[in-house]
Amino acid sequence: MNAIEFILAGMLAAATPFLLAALGELVVERAGVLNLGAEGLMAFGAVLAFIIVYHGGSHLLGFVAAGLGSAALSIVFAVVAVGLRANQVATGLAIGILGQGLSALFGKTYESLTVRGLPKFAFPWLSDIPVIGHLFIQDAVVWLSLAATFAIWAMFAYTKAGLVVRAIGENPKAAHAVGYSVIAVRFAAIAFGGTMAGFAGAYASVVYTPLWADGMIAGRGWIAIALVVFGTWLTGRIFLGACLFGAVSLTGLAAQAAGLDVPSQLLASLPYLVTIIVLGIISADRRLLKLNGVASLGEPFER
Amino acid sequence: MRALFAAILPTLVRRERASLTATLLAPAVALGVATIFNLGLYVLMGRDPIAVFYAMLLEPFLSWASFSEVMLKTGPLLLIAQGLAIGFRAKVFNIGAEGQFILGAIFASAIPVWLPQATGQWIWPLMLVLGALGGASWASLTALWRVRLNANEILVSLMLSLVAAQLLNYLLLGPWKDPNGFNFPQSVMFQYDAMVPILISGTRINVSLLLTIVLSMAAWIFMQKSFSGYRLQVVGLAPRAAGYAGFNEGRAIWLSLLIGGCAAGLAGAAEVAGPLGQLQRSISTGYGYAAIIVAYLGGLHPIGIMVSALFMAALYIGGDNAMVSANLPIAAVRVFQGSLLVAYLIAVAFVRYRLEWRLSVYRSQP
Question: Which residues cross the membrane (chain A) (predicted)?
């Protein structure tokens, strides 16, 4: 397997934690709320899933527990930031620190233990194509994440629910005047975002690298938040961004396999450096950000 | 089909003015709530809550030996939080103090690592200056990205912290590793003149605590009395108005980040030239992140921050105690910190708002 095949084979799986968390954050931000707790929500989901699977639960049960647990933690964020109108930045950071702390606390006795991953399914015919065929051999969660990407795109493009969420993010006062409950929709969006972050964490801890280590989320929650900006709040671009980061995070392994003599610390910081650079490039185009950005992002709603 | 339905819903009503008592009481109430939550968690984990409470929250204050360690830990937290709070009031959210702290420690260590034989009373002061420069230069990258490229400072400063941690690893595993250090990832032990002098004999408290307190006073004067500080606050409260009045947002961002970076870098330098005496992987136990909590718990006010820094430092020492005496993982400290900030934000909401139960009528959409 050469480097290109290696990256093609692993890219989607590596992208999945970024993608799931970023899709959740996208819905939250489209509703006008900035939730900076994604890293902690992911870590919390990751530890819950790991504990369940380690004690013999199925992967499905692990994902369910991670989704519910992170959703519950994100509801705390919703109560404080949306219900009580606290500063969203401070609240998000607080929930993030709390989630990371809880994950370290619960995961303490599981440090360095491993679980079984998930089998991969090949897409008939397509997986037989040389080189790019590797793209079509993935585990069930990757396939479901692709479906989720499509579903969220369709929701925003074609459904009334998507329109309501966007209206509330653009102009909550107007949406309220028309009769929608801004608070209820924002709570629902935040709970959805929390669930997705929980799934993202679960994928990282019981499928992608099925082992527990404190701090294993390693900034992926933050990169997911950055991905929403990279994608200028558009589902398709967020998917492409997640693939880019999947590929970048594999570059380290590929470079080592190719025998390149680069310090491992440089390879480890590659995703962060790429985030900084891409964030600068995308943000510099203010027109682009304005075009698709969310007008009332981060502002508390007061009627 | 349209339907009407009504519900009695809790509604927040803004108070005419927040009372001073309530403002001062909020952190205390938050502390009480967070304590109950955490003790509940320890009970679920099968620990004795009384023993943990004693070890974690009382013991740090009960002996001079413990309390002097609390004061030692207060230094970096206080310094970083004062720097961050100035930015937070201008709505510049630098959450990368951890990285700025690490760069400060690295810059300061350059002298004893490269000149291990040097002597003279100039060494430790120069190390502190270099540390402040290191922190400020790391923060200036975030400022550049924010002002020039319009990139979100929260994300950039955090990513730079993660890069800084890798840079530290690289130095300690590579060029700066102590050749006689039995392969441990740490630098050489610093020479005597590279150490900040001890302030109170019999403890590890050094002159940098004095410096930190002086800088805290300076932060208070800057924020409450100076024109620059006033302008920063206006930029935070009403950016548009500040713009019309000719206050430049870009300058506020540069100033906020440079002050925050200097403070964090100085704290990093004081840590390696103080209690540690060498550059190690574990130079920071999350000071940069904990300082964010310290800043908010102190109400972003220089005096409040002095109290909250002391408390947060006690929590660190108490966490160490509880690890030994009650077999509690050190992660419990992080959980306590996070839940404390959540409780505080809730408490502060009730300082600003009253809860009223009101009848709401909704009409379902066609």
Answer: 6-26, 33-54, 60-82, 89-107, 140-158, 178-205, 211-231, 238-260, 266-284
pTM of the model: 0.94
**Residue of chain A whose alpha carbon sits nearest to that of B149:** A284
Where residue A281 sits, what CATH number does that domain have?
1.10.3470
Q: A7-37: per-residue pLDDT in tens? A: 888 899 999 999 999 999 999 999 999 999 9
For A87, the closest chain B residue by CA position comes to B345
Structure token pair of residue B46: 């099968």
Cα B207 to Cα B125: distance, rounded to the nearest angstrom? 11
**Whether B363 and A276 lie within 8 Å, measured CB to CB:** no
With CB atoms and an 8 Å threshold, state whether B331 touches A98: no
Helices (H), chain B: 20-44, 49-53, 59-62, 64-89, 97-114, 123-149, 153-173, 207-225, 227-237, 239-244, 249-271, 287-297, 302-325, 331-352
How far apart are alpha carbons B346 and B322 in whole angstroms?
A: 27
Model pLDDT for residues B139-160, shown as the tens digit of each residue: 999 999 999 999 999 999 999 9
**What pLDDT, on a 0 to 100 scale, did the predictor assign at position B362?**
64
pLDDT tier at A1 (50, 70, 90 boundaries)?
low
Please check the confidence at residue B2 and state whether its pLDDT lies above 70. Answer: no
**What is the per-residue pLDDT for B364?**
60
Contacts of A272 in chain B (CB under 8 A): 159-160, 162-163, 166
Q: Which domain holds residue A215?
A: 3-114+137-292
Sign of CA dihedral B31, B34, B36, B38: negative
A15 domain-assigned: yes
- As a dihedral over the C-alpha atoms of residue B97, residue B99, residue B102, residue B104, rounded to 10 degrees, the angle is -60
A87 located within any domain = yes
Q: Residue A220, Cα to own-chain centre: how many angstroms?
A: 8
Task: List Cα–Cα distances, B176 to A58, A62, A80, B11, B131, in angstroms.
Answer: 47, 43, 46, 59, 17
* Residue A197 CA, distance from chain mean position: 5
Taking the domains of chain B in order of start, what are their residue ranges?
Answer: 70-296
ipTM of the predicted structure?
0.93
CB-closest option in B93, B149, B362 to A280: B149
Q: Do A87 and B345 touch (CB under 8 A)?
A: yes
Q: Which residues of A touch B332 (CB under 8 A)?
A: 101, 105
**Total structural domains in chain A?**
1
A224 in a structural domain: yes
Listed residue (A123, A204, A189, A168) closest to A300, CA to CA: A168
Of A241, A192, A191, the residue nearest A220 (C-alpha): A241
DSSP one-letter code for B177? S
Question: Chain A closest CA to B292's CA: distance in Å?
Answer: 9
